[in-house]
């Protein structure tokens, strides 16, 4: 769902998409922020990435 929002956010906007889908806008923004700045991820997420 986050990928869908990311792909269509320019055309429709994040909040309108989230109103239709069962997801809070904050969930998307949290995901987008962590993807843009990997240092914001949790220690567990960093360890999981190192293992993959």
From TrEMBL:
Source superkingdom: Bacteria
Protein name, per record: Transposase
Organism, as annotated: Methylomonas rosea
């Amino acid at each position: 769902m986050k990928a869908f929002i990311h792909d269509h956010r320019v055309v429709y906007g994040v909040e309108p998409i989230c109103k239709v889908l069962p997801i809070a806008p904050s969930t998307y923004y949290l995901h987008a922020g962590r993807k843009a700045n990997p240092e914001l991820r949790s220690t567990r997420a960093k360890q999981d990435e190192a293992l993959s």
